[in-house]
Amino acid sequence: MERLRELRDEAVAAFESAVSAAALESARVRHLGRKSEINQVSRGLKDLAEDERRAVGRAVNELKNELGALLAAAGDRIARAGASSGPGLDLTLPGRRPWVGRKHPVTRTFERLEGIFRTLGFEVALGPHVEDEFHNFEALNMPADHPARDMHDTFYIEGGKLLRTHTSPVQIRVMQSRPPPIRIIAPGRAYRNETPDASHASEFYQLEGLYVDRDVRIGELKGVLTKFLHELYGEDVGIRFRPGFFPFTEPSVEVDVECRICEGKGCSVCKGTGWVELLGAGMVDPRVFQAVGYDPDEVTGYAFGLGVDRIHMMMSGVDDIRLYHENDLRFLRQV
Ligand code: FA5
Predict the structure, then answer these.
(1) pLDDT in tens, 159-181
(2) pLDDT tens per residue across span 290-328
(3) Domain assignment present for 41
(4) Which of 74, 88, 198, 266 is 20 to 30 A from 136 via CA?
(5) End residue of a domain, out of 84, 113, 132
(6) Dihedral sign, CA of 122, 224, 148, 203?
(7) Ligand 1 atom 22, closest CA
(8) Residue to probe by mutation, ligand 1, list 136, 168, 269, most atoms within 8 Å of CB
(9) Is 282 in the pocket of ligand 1 (CB under 6 A)?
(10) For residue 99, is it within any domain?
(11) Residue 119 CB neighbours (<10 A)
(12) Nearest C-alpha to atom 6 of ligand 1 is from which residue?
């Protein structure tokens, strides 16, 4: 009888502390199952003397009834707890982290560049991606037979139209639409039928700049671009102005920054040179002013065009431009 009381207390404690259906079931098997000690007592009744058998038999039956009721109550309690926290919800599982959406790295770079140029007094202008030969080439001093057109591997489409190969046609559209002074940047996509590699994509992003007024000098161009690159990469970045050629600027320069991926040592992005070409620039050619109806004796100006994907690559150490255009979330979540 003493042992029965102990078994009762153990079983009651086990049923009351069970927090899941599985835990309750194993408590039931241990305390009331076929191999449980209580059941062994039932089976041993036949070996007892008659008066003992009656007393112990009654006690075991009462105990089994009491524990059966407690077991059912514990089952109800667990079922209610489960229902109030939703079907099949396991509150002990670790949480799943929600991914927070954010802007594409190229969009963020555009916003950063626009911010810098706005503080320097530039306003944003936009133009069409489907262009005509006049705006993309002719007005930029590239007539039909001009060899510079070969450098712009062009996607032609029906009706004599083409996908703009650079953002420079926006310069033309803005100058056609209003008189100087003009101080604009034109952000957007450009398209070239090029074989993609680590630093070339067939769709990429440029940001064009144009400043036209009386007496604009090349020193101002150099000052603005140096200020811009220092804002972006820090004052200690290596910057190189090289003589260049563009039909629509004279003189022309190409501007390189020290490769930030290999710190100038040489890698696949800078093709072992330690420098990456980021932009082209120069003083607007008088023929461009003539094409838009400005008087080249009255006004001068400078223009520049920079590769926005490459700017981000140099800021973040991404070593392949193609990654920006594949929309692979594993990449986009990292940059
Ligand atoms: C031009 O496109 C000129 N319109 C830039 C310009 C504007 C010069 C105004 C003078 C005055 P270029 O072809 O070099 O120039 O391209 C300019 C920049 O765009 C390059 O320095 C590079 O950063 C980027 N770029 C050019 N081609 C690609 C490409 N296939 N993939 C990625 N970036 C490119």
Answers:
(1) 989 999 999 999 999 999 999 99
(2) 999 999 999 999 999 999 998 998 888 898 999 999 999
(3) yes
(4) 198
(5) 84
(6) negative
(7) 307
(8) 168
(9) yes
(10) no
(11) 10
(12) 305
By most ligand atoms within 8 Å of CB, the mutation choice from 174, 310, 325 for ligand 1 is: 310
Query: Distance between CA atoms of 292 and 173, rounded to whole angstroms?
Result: 8
- Would you say the CB of residue 301 lies under 6 angstroms from ligand 1? no
CA dist 182 → 100, 123, 175, 223, 302 (Å): 40, 9, 8, 18, 10
Q: Which residues pair with 240 in a beta bridge?
A: 256
For the chain, the average pLDDT equals 92
Instruction: Kindly state whether residues 238 and 179 are assigned to the same domain.
Output: yes
Question: Do residues 194 and 276 share a domain?
Answer: yes
Give the type of residue at 60.
Answer: V
**pLDDT tens per residue across span 64-73:** 999 999 999 9
Q: Please give the model's pTM, rounded to 2 decimal places.
A: 0.73
The token pair at 150 is 């070969």
CATH number where 211 lies:
3.30.930.10
Are 132 and 62 in a shared domain?
A: no
Q: Which helix (H) or strand (E) holds 111?
A: helix 105-119
218: left (phi over 0), alpha (psi -120 to 50) or beta: alpha
Neighbours of 76 (CB within 10 A): 10
Domain count along the chain: 2
Residue to substitute in 149, 163, 167, 204 for testing ligand 1 pocket (most ligand atoms within 8 angstroms of CB) = 204
Residues 123, 75 share a domain: no
Tell me which residue range forms the domain holding 286. Answer: 105-332
